[in-house]
Design brief:
The protein has 465 residues and is an alpha+beta fold. It is built from eleven helices and 13 strands. A six-stranded antiparallel beta sheet has the order 3-4-5-6-8-7, with helices on one face. A hairpin with a 2-residue loop joins strand 11 and strand 12. It is elongated, with a radius of gyration of 52 Å.
């Protein structure tokens, strides 16, 4: 069974002898059967014609001067397209970065055009987050670009050694990139290769400062073929598959700035989770996943991390498979990221999602029910106490005096019925209204014998005899 080499970034396996990873373009380690690009350069019989003699060191270009003004000091980066060196610009007297086209593609007109295209497009966008370009030239058929020298590390190295990034740092990186890409889109330029290797992090006292690199395969949406030479052939796919939109993966010819929105969303997804939405062992599997599968949300992919729901919503909208469902412009994505950065939302803890919200809602509902029950009970007790005290207490109201014009007429009082009293005794003529005392013997005295003060006496005066 042939020996295999594994890409240090995406972990895809390839047969020994393959120099570059077909998934992400990384230089593959060598097992000894075939030489890597570094070893190929190191074992050349001598420096190319027109270059100074190399000093001691593995790379023969170190210590040489190219184009009569660039002293190569050390190698600082390696990619599938070329190598980046730190150099001393003898004319400017400052340290610069020189991106030199790889020798194996030096004669390829498309690669040379890509490098020159990068310099033109980067210079056409006036933004502090794009690396400054100082010069473009050739040395013995190898195209080079002179750029500002940056201190720090690219985002791929940060993710490789540091894992997922804090949420506020992810928001800051995304906001800066979205603002820069919005300016690029306004200038009619689509980057088409947003990935961590092309994002450089410069440490600043106020926080991370982002520089966007490599406009090599960017395409101008306007400006004519002279400004944007055709760098792709029919059916050819450009860009890194891991950050490629579905329309790029299908090979659609009509592409717009939303492919950069998708790629930036994938980059933010990787910064939050430490993983890309779709990953496989080879190029074709990655493409098939992009076309067929739906990416799991970041909080589902990494439930152990404190990722806020708001940022997850922004990321998932940016990587929507249907480009009509994505952000319509990079400016809209920038606005949401800027708002999140200003809010400084504290991400929820993993255990608070989603059971924490349900528990909080249940406790709140229980307290509300208990409060209502206590209020009803208190009102019933008050009514019972008032009834025992002699009736329900009625609220005191102030009578309203109606105007005379609308006041109702006084109601006639019904006659009060007379209450019958005890029957009156018939009065006896000439007698007092008092009972007659009976005699001791019980016999009734005749009228002549009854004492009567009004009976006339013998003298006729009514006195006693």
């Amino acid at each position: 069974m042939p020996e295999m080499v594994r890409c240090t970034r995406c972990q895809a396996s390839f047969s020994d002898g393959t120099i570059f990873c077909s998934v992400d373009g990384e230089l593959l380690p060598s097992l000894g059967g075939a030489l890597s690009l570094d070893e190929t350069l190191a074992q050349r019989p001598g420096p190319p014609s027109g270059l100074s003699s190399p000093s001691t060191g593995e790379d023969p270009l170190i210590g040489t001067t190219i184009a009569g003004r660039l002293l190569i000091l050390r190698r600082i980066g390696q990619g599938g397209m070329g190598t980046v060196y730190a150099a001393q610009h003898t004319g400017l007297g400052k340290e610069v970065a020189v991106k030199l086209l790889a020798e194996r593609v030096a004669g390829d007109a498309d690669f040379a055009a890509r490098l020159r295209n990068e310099a033109r497009h980067a210079s056409a966008i006036a933004d502090e987050h794009i690396v400054n370009i100082f010069d473009v030239g050739e040395a013995e058929g190898r195209t080079f670009v002179v750029m500002e020298f940056l201190s720090g590390q690219n985002l791929a190295e940060r993710l490789l050694h540091g894992g997922p990034l804090p949420e506020q740092e992810v928001i800051a990186i995304g906001r800066q990139l979205a603002g820069t890409l919005h300016k690029a889109h306004q200038a009619g330029i689509v980057h088409r290769d947003i990935k961590p290797e092309n994002v450089f992090l410069c440490p600043r006292p106020e926080g991370v400062f982002v520089k966007l690199l490599d406009f090599g395969i960017s395409k101008a949406l306007r400006g004519g073929e002279a400004f944007a030479p055709r760098l792709t052939h029919t059916g050819m796919i450009m860009g890194t598959p891991l950050y490629m939109s579905p329309e790029q993966a299908r090979g659609d010819e009509e592409l717009d700035p939303r492919i950069d929105i998708y790629a930036l969303g994938v980059l933010l997804y990787e910064c939050l989770t430490g993983q890309v939405p779709y990953c496989a062992s080879n190029y074709l599997k990655v493409i098939s996943l992009i076309l067929a599968a739906g990416a799991p949300p970041p909080r589902m992919r990494r439930p152990d991390l404190p990722i806020s729901a708001l940022l997850e919503r922004v990321v998932m909208k940016a990587i929507a498979a249907d480009r009509e469902a994505r952000y319509p412009t990079m400016e809209a994505l920038f606005a949401d990221l800027e708002e999140l950065e200003q809010i400084g939302e504290k991400p929820a803890l993993p255990m608070e999602r989603p059971w924490g919200f349900l528990l909080f809602g249940g406790v709140l509902l229980a307290l509300l029910v208990m409060g209502l029950a206590a209020a009803v009970t208190s009102r019933r007790e008050a009514r019972s106490g008032a009834a025992r005290a002699g009736g329900m207490a009625r609220p005191q109201t102030t009578p309203v005096e109606l105007p005379t014009s609308i006041a109702p007429p006084p109601m006639a009082q019904p006659p009060v019925p007379a209450v019958p009293g005890p029957p009156a005794r018939p009065a006896r003529r000439g007698t007092l209204h008092r009972p007659i005392r009976p005699a001791a013997s019980g016999a009734v005295l005749p009228e002549e014998q009854a004492p009567n003060p009004f009976r006339p006496g013998p003298e006729g005066t009514g006195g006693k005899k």
